[in-house]
Structure formats: C-alpha cells, structure tokens
Write a structure and sequence with these properties.
By secondary structure, the chain is of the alpha+beta class. The protein contains ten helices and ten strands.
Amino acid sequence: MSLDLTAPIFQDADKAREFLEANRWPNGAFCPHCGEAENVTAVQAKAKEAKAKTRKGLYQCNSCRQQFSVTVGTVFERSHVPLNKWLLATFLLTSSKKGMSAHQLMRTLGLGSYRTAWFMAHRIREAMIEGETGPLGSGGGTVEADETYFGSKEHKSTVRHDGKPYNKRGARGVANKRAVVSLVERGGKVRSFHVKSADAETVRAIVRENVANDAHLRTDESALYNSFKGRFASHETVRHSSKQYVRPGNIHTNTIEGYFSIFKRGMTGIYQHCGEQHLQRYLTEFDFRYSHRSVSDTERTALALKGIEGKRLTYRRVNRQGAEANA
C-alpha cells in the first residue's frame, strides 16, 4: 500500500472490500455473530434477480442463519461511506506524523460534510487503541516519565474534565490547561493518560501500574516521583530548573520531551482545538503512530486495520458530551 490516490483499493469499493477480506479473513470468512468458520457461504443472487443490483461481499452463516459482510463487527460497520474511502482515511491518519484534520480529510476524500469526516477520524482512533502488552521497560529497559499541560489560557472550552469552569481569561500557569502524563520506553512504546490532575497520587499510580520493577526510570526533579526509591532497578533525575538536561550515563528525559513536542505541534497546528472529553482519543492517535514509528507507513496502516475488529463506535457515544467545534 502506498500513498497513491489512484491505487485500486483507494478508488474502487469492491477492490477495497477484497483487500479487507484478505487481511481480516486470511483463512476464509467466519461469522462475526457465532464464530462459525466452516459452514459459511457467499450469498448468490437468484436467477430471477440476476439482473437486479445485488450487494457484493454478502455472506450467510448456515449455523446461526445470520448474514454479514467483512465490515460487520468492526468500526466500519453500518457506514454509508464507501470502503475505499475508509482505507484511504486510515492510511492518511496513520502516516501523517502530526495527524490530519477533519477538514483536510473531508477535502481529500471528497466527503459531503465535516461531521462525517470528524466521525470517521474518531472511529479510526478507536481502531488505534491497543491492548496492554505488559509493563514498559521489562528486561531492564529504560523508561522516561513526565507530565505536561495542554491548552490555551484563553481556550474556548468553558468546562473542565471535572465539570468545573475554567479560570477567567488571563490566568497564568497550568490552571486553565489539561494534564497529560506519559511514559516512553526508549526504543519502544509510549503510553499517555489524560488525567483530571497530575497530582502525586495519580502520577505514582500510573507509573507503578505501567513500568516494570526491573526497569530503569528517568524523570525530572519533580516531587511527584520522589517515592520510587528502591522500587525500580534505578531511578535517576535531571534538574531542568538548573538548566541540566543530560547527565553522565545517558541520564535524560529528552525522549519524552521529543514526544511531547510532536503531540503539541500536532494539536496546535493541525487540530487547533479539541474538547477535553475527546483528548484521550487524540492521545491514543499520537501514541499509536509514535509506538510504531520504526515501521513503514504500509505496516502501520496494517496494524491499525487489525484493530478495527470487535469495536463499535456510534455517533451518540463519541458525541455524548457535546459536538466538537473544530476537532
């Protein structure tokens, strides 16, 4: 798969369906309703209906008598958007380092409305959610932990995550911003969490639950990380307040600072505005691309397509706390 807008799977819905069937069902179709894989047949048009327009890619399970297609049981289910446009949207979101706005998706895909593009992007972010594969830094790896704050002190959103109003215009510091805690394993994956408050209890719980005991932890001098002495293989810090960024022994937090830079540039330059209720979804998107930064765009897209199964995202669910203005 390459970024060629003339590629058949990006131009033809049938080619896209065949591509997805080959990827989702390498050993043949199976029923998403009961799991049957042997007693499944393709639905054929009857002789008197042969000239009528029939739905391609329709299968029937002869065990539970349910009909289905390759999109049933995935984030693409019940969408009126052609499947070739779904594949292109998935490729664009997984290959764009700092993301792609819903307005740009709308223009590139030729969609009829901004809301459709916005909802498609959220469905693809749902596919990017990866199951936990154990603690970071297992086997003596190095994990960097840090917190950051995202948002403008003059942000248009009026309600914080906890339901309280943002401070008035002109507030300084982090009072008006959304807290994010991230963990990055050097040469490995990143995990980010949108939290109500980056206080000591919250940050320590995240680190303890997601970092292996035999890992080497690297943080700044924040008091949030003072309680980890003896818990990990080592815990070293750098004093950013004294303009210390690297210590002998490769002790630094430059890796996670680099990740935060990508995230903030993408959120500020590409998405521009994000309702707080959706921030975790955007973090998932940036985490996914960064965690799979060492593979090609083709492979990263394939990994995202593996995540479409077993997930459903309705518009009511994604929009349950109010529509986005400019997601």
